[in-house]
Amino acid sequence: MTETSLLTLDLDALASNHAVLKAAAGGAEIAPAVKADGYGLGAALVAGRLWDEGARSFYVARLSEGLALRASLGDRDATIYLLDGVTPGAAPAIEAARLTPVLNSLPQIEAWNSHARGRVLDAALHIDTGMNRLGLRPEEAVVLTGAMDRLKHVNLTLVISHLACASEPDHALNARQLSRFTEAAALFPNARRSLANSGGIFLGGDYQFDQARPGISLYGGGPRDLPDARIKAVATLEAPILQARVVPRGESIGYGAAFTATETTRVAILAAGYADGVPRAAHPRGAMWFDGALRPMLGRVSMDLIAVDITDCDAARPGAMMQIIGPDRLVDDAAAAAGTTAYELLTRIAPRARRVVKGG
Question: Do 252 and 288 share a domain, yes or no?
Answer without folding.
Answer: yes
